[in-house]
Amino acid sequence: MRYDPIKDSLDKVFSRSVFSRKLFYFLLDLLLLRAWYIRKELRKFRSRSGDIAEILDAGAGFGQYSYFMSRLSDNWKITAVEIKSKQVNECNLFFSKIFHKPHVVFEEADLVTYRKAETYDLILCVDVMEHIREDALVFENFYLSLKPGGLLLISTPSDQGGSDVHHDNEVSFVEEHVRNGYGMNELDGKLRDAGFRIIESKYSYGLAGKISWKFSLKYPIMLLNTAKIFFIILPFYYLVTFPFSLLLNLLDVNKKQKTGSGLIVKAWK
Question: Which of 133, 189, 198, 224 could disulfide-link to 268, CB 3.0 to 4.6 Å?
Fold first, then answer.
């Protein structure tokens, strides 16, 4: 299943105004379980780091996490990098409209080559590493770009059903993925090889989260890949399924998962 064409279609719909883009961010925050986990970790970082920080949103996508972080502190300087120039331009336009002195700047960059020595207090990388083959180079760049004591926060599929792969002969639900998911120990080892020494990992998308993912993301994407007419039907679909998905997200994010199809990893320099 190709995910990028669906994202491009959604971008066209929700980039028409400041209001529609804010609405889009709000819906993503509610529907995507990974956003629940990331927002929780970012609030923890805010409570520890205080009002001033320099942050890299590595693989920013639509920019929803940069938007969330920008609201946590007016004094956080956020650099958001994305490989797609169209998304970079649209995000810069949006942020220039909502801030008189923008403290969020989007740049077109490839994470395989992007590094800025000892610049960032936090690097956020949400559902990006499963798209990049040269992951060891990216982790090295992250390590070099963090200040001493800086934090790398990653969300990525695990090898416990990530990308909806459960057996060796299956392929990823998302065609754009170059790997189905990381083993927890595998990712820990790659981060240590890059130089990180303090690493905390936990599973996300346990049983409740997996069910929520199917209703909030998998089935809608399958419908939209079938025909664009489902863009009209989608709001009615979510009216029925959203309360159920919301409850499942609450259960997942507030319970320690013994296993799960996602990983939330924190690594300190």
Answer: 198
